[in-house]
Amino acid sequence: MRGLGRWVAYVAFGLIATTVVLATAIFVLLDRFDLGPLAASRASAALGPPVTVAGLHVMPGRRLTVELRGVQTENIPGGTRPEMAALQRLTAEVARGNETSGFDR
Hints:
Blueprint: H1 2-29, H2 36-47, E1 51-59, E2 63-74, E3 83-95, H3 98-101
Antiparallel strand pairs: 1-2, 2-3
């Protein structure tokens, strides 16, 4: 019985350590991934008309920075213009701690 408890403790510690290392690696390397195609597919599914996103980068740091580039939404069939909306570039910074707490009161 003593050997089983020790084995369970080792496995639990290994899982926790692996989770911490993976979370840290994702946090540090997040800005190297272009999340534009994922955002475009989600937006197209939610809105209906095709949406293109040239680039979406999330950069962790003292402030969380989100950069969105080249967003275009096609108009619905029969619309007056072929393009409903376009955004060349948008950069937003979020102060640490405000990601989950909501608005300041």
